[in-house]
Structure formats: structure tokens, C-alpha cells
Amino acid sequence: MAAPASAEAPVRGAMTPVPHRVLSRVQETADTWTLELDPLSEPVQPRAGQFDMLYAFGVGEVPISTSGDHEGGPLTHTIRAVGAVTRALCALEPGAVLGVRGPFGSVWPLGEAAGSDLLVVAGGIGLAPLRPAIRHALARRDDYGAVSVLVGARTPDDLLYVPELERWRSRLDVEVDVTVDSAAAGWHGRVGLVTTLIPGAVVDPAKASAFVCGPEVMMTFVVRALLERDLPLERIWVSLERNMRCAVGHCGHCQLGPTLICRDGPVFPAAAMTRLLEVREL
After folding, report:
1. How crowded is residue 45: how many other Cβ atoms within 10 Å of its Cβ?
2. Per-residue pLDDT tens digits for 14-34
């Protein structure tokens, strides 16, 4: 099981919201926006894989994974408007102020994966927590072997970061493959589940590490497909975000079996989570 946040990175002032001003607001899909934030006091500095609690004043707070560069640059979060708090956050215009507390949680093991091939598999908004890890690997390209990024979405209109996906795809040192579950006429890309991309990924299973994030059922089948590709289970990591509310393991809403996602995750070795994810009652 992944170590708690205290063992991964120091948490400084994590219980006190730090005011941040919205620098930019970019609409990614019909219901999803990316906010870039500027601190009005001491900055919050999450690492790839961690999350922050974003507070819409007068409405409430929600956990949102960091989706930007974790070394320099503005604090970035990609948010889907699915409830009162996320709708309020997504509606904020540049210049508005929100609260941020954190960072919380475990990180993608980029150091442990260095020297190996890297396979990143994202489903839907699961690309957001993986984006900092991808950017890290591409900025330090010599630290990794082959790098493959596999992205799945429900439809072409649900794809995140389309201009950035095109920039990654134009590079000669990374494989980027995209598929959608269904598409109308005019879509010239792949149609099918993201698991169908795994057999053709350009990595050596004997020396590859895999990072996976998306809906839980998708991750279950991706892990199975990776095992069929002969990736060792101990070299696969997944990120979970079910029902997190307090970020410190007090409320119990994010409990999955004996695990509290906010306290022990959100990034876990797949070996610690695959059996739990296969139990419907959990």
C-alpha cells in the first residue's frame, strides 16, 4: 500500500485555505474547465498525483487533482461541473478568488519508474491527474525509455487537452494513441475501448512501468490487459478518487475496504487495489 502523504511529501499549512486568484479559465469540454491559479500568499505546491481541496466561498469545498506542472508555473486544476461546488468553481472568471488547502496524498512514482519504459493509460477525466506525470517524463525524456500515452474518452467531444495531445503526438520520441467509445460521422480516429490500444503499445513489458487513471471499472480491465501483456503487477500504479471529502481520513466517505483513499492514496500500487476494485459491494 502506498505511504501516507506525510511519508511522501511534507504537508505545510494543509488545513488552512490559501486564497488564490484565478489567472485563466479554459473550457475543455461541455462540462469541464481548467483553472490556472495564482496564490495571494504562500503558494500551495503539489507534486504529480497529489490533490488539493478547492473552496468556493459560501458554497463548499471539493478535492481536485493537480493537472499542471508541479515544478513552477501556476497551480492548475481541471474540474468537471457535476455538483454545486464544482459548478461554482467552474463558473469563476479570471480575477475571482477561491481557497486552496493542501497538498494531500501520494504521488506518481516517477523516480521509481526512471530508467524503464513508461506506459500511461487514461480514461476520460482521468487524463487530468496523469498530465503532470506525462509532462514530467517528456521534460526529462532521457530519464525514460519508450514512452506511450494511451487515451480513451466516451466521444471526441469528451477529450481533454486536445491541442496538447496534438503537440505530444507531433513529437518523435513519444507514442500517443487516442480512442473513443463512439463517434459521429467525420471522426477519423479510433473507435473502441482504451484497452484495445494496450496490445499495440510500444513498450517492453519486461522493463516497463504503467500509470493508470480513469473510472474504476475501466482501471480494472486495463490492469487485466496489462497483465496479459506481461507487465508485472508490481510495476503498475492506479489513482482513485472515490467520494473524498475531508482529505485527512476523518469522515470515512472515501473508504474502500480497509483503505481510506484520501489518507492512503490517491495513487496506489495496483497489487494493493485490484481485488478490492473487483468487489461490487465496495
Report:
1. 16
2. 678 899 999 999 999 999 999
**Dihedral (Cα; 22, 28, 31, 34), 10-degree rounding:** -20
3-state secondary structure the chain: CCCCHHHHCCCCCCCCCEEEEEEEEEEEECCEEEEEEEECCCCCCCCCCCEEEEEECCCEEEEEEECCCCCCCCEEEEEECCCHHHHHHHCCCCCCEEEEEEEECCCCCHHHHCCCEEEEEEEHHHHHHHHHHHHHHHHCHHHCCCEEEEEEECCHHHCCCHHHHHHHHHCCCCEEEEEECCCCCCCCCEECCHHHHHHHCCCCHHHEEEEEECCHHHHHHHHHHHHHCCCCHHHEEEECCCCCCCCCCCCCCCEECCEEHHHHCCEEEHHHHHHHHCCCCC
Domains of the chain: 5-104 (2.40.30.10), 110-239 (3.40.50.80)
φ, ψ dihedrals at 259, nearest 5°? -105, 140
Question: Tens digits of per-residue pLDDT, 48-100?
Answer: 999 999 999 999 999 999 999 877 789 999 999 999 999 999 999 999 999 99
pLDDT over threshold 60, residue 248: yes
Q: What CA–CA distance (Å, rounded) separates 135 from 69?
A: 7
Burial code of 97-120, b = ≥16 C-beta within 10 A, e = fewer? ebbbbbbbbbbbbbeebeebbbbb
Rounded CA gap, 235 and 206, in Å?
A: 10
Residue 4, pLDDT above cutoff 50: no
C-alpha dihedral over 34, 40, 42, 45, to 10 degrees?
Answer: 10
